[in-house]
Amino acid sequence: MALLKQITYDNGTTASYHRIDGLLVSCHPDNGASVTATIYSYLTEDTRAANVGAPVSTEDVTAELTETQANGNLRKAMYAKIKARPEWADAVDC
Length: 94
Known about the structure:
By secondary structure, the protein is of the alpha+beta class. It contains three helices and five strands, in the order βββαβααβ. It has helices at 45-49, 67-70, 74-83; strands spanning 3-8, 14-27, 33-42, 57-65, 92-93. The protein has a five-stranded antiparallel beta sheet with strand order 4-3-2-1-5. The radius of gyration is 14 Å and the shape is elongated. The N and C termini lie close together (6 Å). The mean pLDDT is 90.
């Protein structure tokens, strides 16, 4: 899974393919967890698949997950949390 969204960075580079390449989970003793997802942004899906270049940007997004979310598919839950943020609202699953 990944997200498609055109993002132009300050240096003029535009990336359209964004995927979670790392998760850091901090479980809460009562329930749920804090999860930090590292999003790697690439020029396109093809450049990512071909390992042609390094990511053009990385971003950490931290969210609180319920116990049910934390015990399920963490990547899927974090993609949903990321898309709920205003700056990612128009991102499309791919």
